[in-house]
Model the fold of this input.
Amino acid sequence: MKRLVRRAATILWPAFLVAAVLEIVVFAFVDPLALHTPQGGMLPLSANAIYSIAFLVFWCCTAVACALTVLLDRSAHDINAEVLDAR
Done:
C-alpha cells in the first residue's frame, strides 16, 4: 500500500503543479465568459465553474502524461518482481 501511495503522489503532485501553471497561462489570454458553445451560444456557466472545470481537465491530462512516464520508466526487473510478489 505504501508503494501505491508513493506512486500516486509521484504522479499527482507534479500534475497538480503543471495544471496550476496551465490555468494561469490560459486564462491570462482567455476570458472565460467570452467562451461559446460550438453552436455559437454562451456557456451557461459562471467564471468560477469554467476555471474549476478547466483546472480539472488540465490536471487529468497532465496526470495521464505523468502516469505514462512512470509506467514507461519501469524496468523489466521491477515489473517481474511485482508480478512475483503478487503470487
User: Anything to note?
Assistant: The radius of gyration is 18 Å.
